[in-house]
Amino acid sequence: MKKLFAVLGNPIGHSMSPLMHNDLFSYYQIDAHYLPFQVRAEDLEDAVKGLRAIGVGGFNVTVPHKSSIIPFLDEVDPLAKSIGAVNTVVNQGGKLIGYNTDGPGFLKGLTACYPSIKGKKVLVIGAGGAARAIYFTLAKEKPLTLDIANRTPNNALSLIKECPYSVVSHAYSLEEAGKQLVEYDLIVQTTSIGMSPNTSELPISVNEIKKESMVCDIIYNPLETKFLQMAKQHGAQIQNGIEMFVYQGALAFEIWTGIFPDVKRMRENVLRQLGGHTC
Ligand code: ATR
C-alpha cells in the first residue's frame, strides 16, 4: 500500500519539499507520496492525530510549527530537544519520533566544500530559530570561537547561554561585528535580510571581510544575496542556502527510508523549480 509523507506548515504553498521528495520516491522506486498540508496552529494537534491514525510514514514540519509540534510527539532526539525545534518526524511502528535536520543539513552542506570547522573562528549572524539550529550543531564541532552578531544582542546572549555544548562565544551588535569581520574564518548569515523582494538589504557591512574566508547565507531566493555578492567581491568563498535546504531534505529522506539520496539530483531539481519562480 502506498505510504503517505507530508509537510505541515502555514503558509505551505511555495514549499519545494513535495517536488524534491516525490522525485526521490519515484527515483528509488519507493511506493510513497509526499503532500503539503496547510495547518493552522489551533489545528496542529488534530492534524498529528489524523496522520497517526492513517499510518503516515513520516512528515516534515515547517514554520510556524517547529516548536509547537514537540508535545504531540512520542520521542524527540537529543539535538532536536536542545534546539527546541523539530523539522522531521518518522513513524516507527506507531511511535512518532522527532528530529532536527536543519542544523545537521547546514553542516553537511558546508563540509562538502569546507571540510572542518575545528579550531576555526566562526560568526553566526542572527539569533532566531534557524540560527539556533545552526549554532547548536556547529558548537559540537569544536570551533575555536563561535560568536553571534544580532540586531538585539540580548537575544544572541540568551541563545549562547542555552547552548548545551561548551564553546567560547561572544555576542555582538551587527555594527560591532561588522568592524571586526576580518577575525572570522567562517561567517553564516541566518536572518531574512536580503531575501526577495528586499534584495538590496545587507545585514552587516562586508568591507572588513577576510579574503580567504568562507561566507554562507541560508537564503536561496535570490540565489546570491547582496551579502554573498559583496563577500565574493572581497575575495571570500561563498555558499547559498540551496545546500542547507537540499541536505536537510536528504537527511530527512534517510531517516524515513534508510537511503541517503543523490544530492546532486536533488539540487538540480530544486534549482530548476527555483528558476521557474524567480525569473
Ligand atoms: P527564523 O526562525 O527564520 O530564524 P526568526 O526567529 O524570526 O526567524 O529570527 C529572525 C532573526 O533575524 C533574528 O535574529 C532577528 O533579530 P532580532 O533578534 O533582533 O529580532 C533578525 N532580523 C529579522 N529582521 C531583521 C532586520 N530587519 N534587521 C536586523 N535583524 C533582523
TrEMBL record:
The keyword Metal-binding does not apply. The active site is at 66 (proton acceptor). Its EC number is 1.1.1.25. Shikimate binds at residues 15-17, 62, 87, 102, 220, 248. Keywords: Amino-acid biosynthesis, Aromatic amino acid biosynthesis, NADP, Oxidoreductase. Residues 7-89 form the Shikimate dehydrogenase substrate binding N-terminal domain. Pathway: Metabolic intermediate biosynthesis; chorismate biosynthesis; chorismate from D-erythrose 4-phosphate and phosphoenolpyruvate: step 4/7. Pfam families: SDH_C, Shikimate_DH, Shikimate_dh_N. It catalyses: shikimate + NADP(+) = 3-dehydroshikimate + NADPH + H(+). NADP(+) binds at residues 126-130, 218, 241. One of its GO terms (molecular function) is shikimate 3-dehydrogenase (NADP+) activity. Residues 241-268 form the SDH C-terminal domain. InterPro entries: Aminoacid_DH-like_N_sf, NAD(P)-bd_dom_sf, SDH_C, Shikimate_DH, Shikimate_DH-bd_N, Shikimate_DH_fam, Shikm_DH/Glu-tRNA_Rdtase. Residues 115-193 form the Quinate/shikimate 5-dehydrogenase/glutamyl-tRNA reductase domain. NCBIfam families: aroE, PRK00258.3-3. Homodimer. PANTHER family: BIFUNCTIONAL 3-DEHYDROQUINATE DEHYDRATASE_SHIKIMATE DEHYDROGENASE, CHLOROPLASTIC, SHIKIMATE DEHYDROGENASE. Belongs to the shikimate dehydrogenase family. HAMAP family: Shikimate_DH_AroE. This is Shikimate dehydrogenase (NADP(+)). It comes from Neobacillus sedimentimangrovi. The gene is aroE.
